[in-house]
Amino acid sequence: MFDTGLIVKTLIILLLGVISPGPDFFMVLRNSLSFGRKAGLISAAGIATGCFISFTILICGLKFLFTYKFVKLALGLICGTYLIYLGIMSIKSKSHHERISYEVAPSEPLIVYYRNGFFTNLLNPKLYTISGAILAFTEQQHPSVFTNAGIVIGNAIMVFCWFASVALVLSHPKIQTGYFKREQLINRILGFILIVVGTRVLFG
């Protein structure tokens, strides 16, 4: 049985978690402002893929792994270190001194932005904790396989649409013009935020 009502309820609750600023948001923010629309959209695709995999893992019953401290510590170490690295790179990045056009290709291969979004999402232990708590409620309703599949696919689509919208807004020429006037300062602030977020993930 395909429970549309349960899917909608679950996705609405999950959306509240998605739109709250976190590592994924700052990743898209940095890539969209610094490298343009394509970089932001590819990052959003990476995040959506990470969500698809992480939700599949959760719904398949592997949530219990996070009751083991060493698993959570390992993921926290990997994700935290990765975010701190990206933060340092953001602080060290040089100014472009020009607006990035919608059509100009990003300075790095697109796979780099996809990988950034993918691993930032997939290796975020807090995602599993928060999403696991929400899905625990859903699982109490004994959803069918088709309902769970709808939640996984619907969430991935919802996540992509949200972060793609963020990327499109932040890559707008007027916003970019304002950004490039203060590029180095903003990159340092974003880098600092990534380091803070990474440190919080690292130390729980």
TrEMBL record:
<keyword id="KW-0812">Transmembrane</keyword>
<dbReference type="Pfam" id="PF01810">
    <property type="entry name" value="LysE"/>
</dbReference>
<dbReference type="InterPro" id="IPR001123">
    <property type="entry name" value="LeuE-type"/>
</dbReference>
<feature type="transmembrane region" description="Helical">
    <location>
        <begin position="41"/>
        <end position="64"/>
    </location>
</feature>
<feature type="transmembrane region" description="Helical">
    <location>
        <begin position="70"/>
        <end position="91"/>
    </location>
</feature>
<protein>
    <recommendedName>
        <fullName>LysE family translocator</fullName>
    </recommendedName>
</protein>
<feature type="transmembrane region" description="Helical">
    <location>
        <begin position="6"/>
        <end position="29"/>
    </location>
</feature>
<feature type="transmembrane region" description="Helical">
    <location>
        <begin position="145"/>
        <end position="165"/>
    </location>
</feature>
<feature type="transmembrane region" description="Helical">
    <location>
        <begin position="185"/>
        <end position="203"/>
    </location>
</feature>
<keyword id="KW-0472">Membrane</keyword>
<keyword id="KW-1133">Transmembrane helix</keyword>
<dbReference type="GO" id="GO:0005886">
    <property type="term" value="C:plasma membrane"/>
</dbReference>
<dbReference type="GO" id="GO:0015171">
    <property type="term" value="F:amino acid transmembrane transporter activity"/>
</dbReference>
<keyword id="KW-1003">Cell membrane</keyword>
